[in-house]
Amino acid sequence: MPSSPSPDSGTCIRVAIVEDDAHFQASFIRAIKAAPDMQLVGVADTRAEGLALLDASPADVLLVDLGLPDGSGIDVIRATLARWPECGVMVSTTFGDETHVMQSIEAGAAGYLIKDSTPGRMTDEIRSLAAGGSPISPMIARQVLQRFRHAAPAAAPGTPATAMAANPSTLSAREREVLGFITRGFTADEIAALMQVSHHTVLTFVRRIYSKLKVSSRAEAIYEARSRGLLAD
Amino acid sequence: MKQEAGACWRTRFCWGLLLACLLALAGCDGRLGGDGAVRLQQAQFASVPGNGYTAPPMRADSGQLPDGPWTTTPLPHVQSRELVPSANAAVATATDWYRLDLPRLPPAPGQHYLYIPRWKTIGQIAIYGDGRLLYRSDSSFVHNGYNHPLLVRLDDTAQAGVPATVLIRIDRLRSSGSALSTVWAGDARALIWRYQVRDWLQTQLPYMGSAAFLAVGAFSLAAWLGRRRETLYLLFFVTSVVAYVRTLHYYVGISRLPVPDDWFEWVTVSSMLWLLVLFHLFLQRLHKRPQRWLTVALLVLTAICNLVALPALSAFPSVVLTAPLFYMAITPLAMLTFGYALRNAWKTRSREVWMMATWIFAGAACGIHDVSLQNNWIGPESMYLFPYAIIGMFFMFTHIMFTRYMGAISEVEQLNEGLAERLQAREAELAQSYQRLRDVEQREMLSQERQRLMRDMHDGVGSSLAMAIHTVEHGSLDDVQVAELLQDCLDDLKLAIDSMEPVEADLLLLLATLRFRLAPRIESAGIRLSWQVQDLPALPWLEPGSALHVLRILQEAFANVLRHARASAIRVETGVSPDGGVLVTIEDNGCGFSPQAAAEAGATQGRGLRNQQRRAQAVQGEVRWTSGPGGTRFTLWLPLSRAPQPVA
User: Fold this and answer.
1) Is the CB of residue B179 less than 8 Å from the CB of residue B219?
2) Which of A136, A142, A145, A189 to mutate to test the interface with B (most CBs of B within 10 A)?
3) How does residue A232 score in pLDDT terms, banded at 50, 70 and 90?
4) So what's the architecture of A13-130 in CATH?
5) Which of A21, A174, B37, B559 is disulfide-compatible with B186, CB 3.0–4.6 A?
6) What letter would DSSP give residue B32?
7) What is the CATH number of the domain that holds B555?
């Protein structure tokens, strides 16, 4: 997983957090403070406080817990995207399980952070997210593939690859390839080598897939029942 | 059905009303000045006996006629007929002359007519205007168009004026009698419609009625050909044919017939008898109380009459002359048949039988009237009514057949409806029992899943946590080690959660998930992981229970490397084994171990190995170790498909 420093270490990454778990909040704040290229710009314990944070100037990365005492973090995700469109929203989760993560991504989150990660890993993930990348697990990759299963499996002959990639209801061949590798257990580094692209490119592929998922999730809700098919790629 | 029957009755009522109006119209007693028509109700009459028929002369002036005394006679005028013909009946003829002096008709040039509603003879008719032949019948002597009214143009040539005197010549057999109705003279406007109405009622309506009957009969025949068991349809068809034949003599004969008179008369008389038989058979079908002897008697008598009347065999001079005798012969049996039908109508109280019985009265009345008319017992001004009885019968039979037909259809519909309902009920039952079965299955599955998770919690996270608490309480481990132990607990939990995601038979996805979970640990231990996997065939048995077994086996293999091997690299490989099955290999470059010694030692590692073996057995797989100084090679073999047995 990513361990490279931020590509634009010259600028400071502004980070905010909405988290009711005091221990995790503390360890997270510690990790941010220890990172020289990051700046903590806001901390909230509840959904209401989290929504109030959005009145301040935008952060680059917002970390949100889904289970807040006064409501769902999903609301905070939606509000953030409306107020701070440039902000990368990251969901903090204990298990990184499919149900929670998919739900967050459909609401517009760009990534997730597993709560028991080491401080070093936490800051790596934040940097990657700020640089336009997104993390993904094999189970989630498989789930995404299933969501897009009903759409054209690959670019039709004669269709420019860029047009295909821009189409929010289908995955491009490259995007499918990345997801396929991930479901087979390869890491972003390995995939970058296999596809002869940079590590960062692989992670931006994932980000683009997530944004397609967000766009299509509503329109394709009707397909969900149908798309519970097979994974075989 | 009721409504349709009602409609049918209404239709008949309307027909009846129309008929009554037309009859009234036909019989209406117009006078000169009213509408330009004169009804002549008396004539001068003279009769000249002869021997055999003679052709009418071209000219006939009343002055030149045989001196036979002219007598004044009222019109209609009737010569009655001999019921039992005498020996020379076929040759003894007479020629009757009627002289009519026409009143002055209002001027209507070229538009004057003579209209005779009915004339009746076995012979011929000729009409003269001021001695000049205006009209003569041109067909056989018997079927000579006697049922057709006559309309004769009086001023039919350029120079001819309206004649002052009209002579009507009718020759006849002396035994058969003859009749002449009143005679009308007048202009076209007054007479043509009278003629047309009478013609329509007397010949055309019976003709159309019998043709319609025949058409429905053809339909009925087709129905019978399709369903041979329904003989009622066949009976209907035969009845329609016989009725058609019977009705023929009311409207044919205006021109010469292609068959001899005797044969045609024989057919006409026979068809009447057969109509009676058929009517009887039809009635029997309706009241379902067959009287064999009556049927047999009717058939025998009809057959005898038919035979006796056959012109070739007949001992009588002519069927034409003896027809009334046959009708009389059959009358008692007919009365018996109808009486019996009435009794059954009373007993069964079936609407259809009642209808038939009502018709019988009407039919009998028509029959009596017609016989009277034929024998000149009543005035010739009247019309034959039996054709209307046949039309009535046609409507009645059609109504009965239609009712049967609709009844059959609605029966089928009801049957279908019942069938659909039963089917629906069965479907609902089936759906219910299926739902119950599913509920049971669901509960069973939930209970199994609960047991599986509880066992896993107990053996895995539960025991790890217990151990952690125990060691912390005894202070035998430092903080880092406690953290590691707790990290193990969390990893266990994560894998348990992963195992619950459906992997859809994809072992590689399961391996990928394991790598994703363990990567941070392996990375932080400074071990390089080489991921050499290839695509594997689907393992259909890989449901959550089995998936967790596989995850735990491999987790333990990784844990062994991390804990004991002091390795710097791990290589993970997948492949298809030659014996049909899949292989997962985990190879390290550590110090190696003796699985035998480890197992016997009973240490933590030994327990781990035993767990792996137990879990492998549970999924009908196998685990193998080969170890040496260069490292350890762990292999998990899994079958492509599994013999059905409960998941442990």
Assistant:
1) no
2) A142
3) very low
4) 3-Layer(aba) Sandwich (3.40)
5) B37
6) T
7) 3.30.565.10
Confidence of residue B11 (pLDDT cuts 50, 70, 90): low
> Is B142 exposed, middle or buried (CB count within 10 Å of its CB: 0-12, 13-18, 19+)?
buried
* pLDDT for residue A224: 44
ipTM for the complex shown: 0.80
Mean pLDDT of the region B460-485:
78
In a domain, B565, yes or no: yes
B203 CB-contact burial (10 Å; exposed 0-12 / middle 13-18 / buried 19+): buried
CB B103 within 8 A of CB B171: no
Give the sheet arrangement for strand B37-40, strand by strand.
B37-40, B183-187, B112-116, B150-153
Domains: count for chain B:
1
To the nearest whole angstrom, how far is the Cα of A152 from the nearest Cα of chain B? Answer: 22
DSSP B88: T
Are A95 and B533 inside 8 Å of each other by CB?
A: no
Residue B474 to residue B488: CA distance in whole angstroms:
19
Give the integer Cα–Cα distance in Å for B455 and B449.
10
- Are the beta carbons of A97 and B490 separated by less than 8 Å? no
Q: Residues B389-403: what's their mean pLDDT?
A: 86
| A98 contacts on B by Cβ (under 8 Å) | 501
Q: What is the DSSP string of B288-325?
A: ----HHHHHHHHHHHHHHHHHH-TTT-SSS-HHHHHHH
Is B613 part of a structural domain of the chain?
Answer: yes
Residue B508 in any domain: the answer is yes
What is the domain range of residue B631?
Answer: 503-638
DSSP SS3 for B163? coil
Ranges of each domain in chain A: 13-130, 138-223
- What whole-number distance in Å separates Cα of residue A161 and Cα of residue A208? 14
Residue B483 near chain A (CB below 8 Å): no
A interface with B, Cβ–Cβ < 8 A, is 1, 95-98, 116-118, 121, 137-139, 142, 182-187, 190, 230-232
- Window from B27-41, B278-292, B372-386, B626-640 with minimum mean pLDDT: B27-41
Among residues 547-566 of chain B, which lie with CB inside 8 Å of chain A? none
- Sort B76 into a burial class: Cβ within 10 Å, 0-12 / 13-18 / 19+: buried
Tell me, yes or no, whether B563 lies in a domain: yes
Q: Which two tokens stand for residue A144?
A: 């995404």
Minimal Cα–Cα distance from A94 to chain B, Å?
9
